[in-house]
């Protein structure tokens, strides 16, 4: 079983504590590759996700934070090749589109995630980076997702990683 943690935009250093806490709580390796901050294109992020996927076993769990979470979800929607991940645990995921942030990263119309891929969405009400209502938009688009609303924790999920680790752990055991 392999776990990849996809950090947020410009967040490779800032997200290290979250990946480290998952390692500590689950007592398993968690790989957090460095995604290029100078190239925020889907091609660059999808390419790195593909390289990471191809270097690991077919038993893959993806945890993602912020922009990285949205890139993992978008990649599943737009051409993921090979075996699907065992599940996704996404934190503070931006919603791109008319009801969220305007950008070229919007999920395609009519996208549904395969019922074979468990999805957990976590967001903290006091997140000052990604508005909390983005979670509501994702929940309506992805009705099979398990949604975790946290009262506090901010954008970096301070004090909330136990709940995240529980969901990741449910996918690896």
UniProtKB/TrEMBL annotation:
SUPFAM superfamilies: alpha/beta-Hydrolases. Signal peptide: none annotated. GO terms for molecular function: hydrolase activity. It comes from the Bacteria. InterPro entries: AB_hydrolase_1, AB_hydrolase_fold. Keywords: Hydrolase. The keyword Transferase does not apply. Pfam families: Abhydrolase_6 (PF12697). Residues 3-121 form the AB hydrolase-1 domain. This is Alpha/beta fold hydrolase. It comes from Arthrobacter gallicola.
């Amino acid at each position: 079983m392999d776990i990849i943690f996809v950090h947020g935009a410009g967040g490779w250093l800032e997200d290290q504590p979250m990946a480290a806490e998952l390692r500590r709580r689950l007592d398993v390796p968690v790989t957090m590759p460095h995604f290029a901050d100078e190239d925020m294109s889907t091609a660059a992020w999808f390419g790195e996700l593909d390289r990471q996927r191809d270097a690991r076993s077919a038993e893959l769990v993806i945890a993602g934070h912020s922009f990285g979470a949205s890139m993992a979800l978008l990649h599943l929607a737009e051409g993921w090749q090979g075996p699907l991940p065992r599940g996704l645990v996404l934190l503070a995921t931006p919603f791109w589109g008319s009801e969220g942030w305007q950008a070229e990263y919007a999920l395609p119309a009519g996208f549904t995630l395969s019922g074979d891929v468990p999805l957990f969405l976590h967001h903290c009400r006091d997140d000052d980076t990604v508005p909390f209502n983005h979670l509501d938009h994702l929940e309506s688009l992805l009705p099979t997702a398990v949604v975790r609303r946290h009262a506090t924790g901010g954008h970096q999920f301070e004090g909330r990683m136990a709940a995240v680790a529980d969901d990741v752990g449910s996918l690896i055991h």
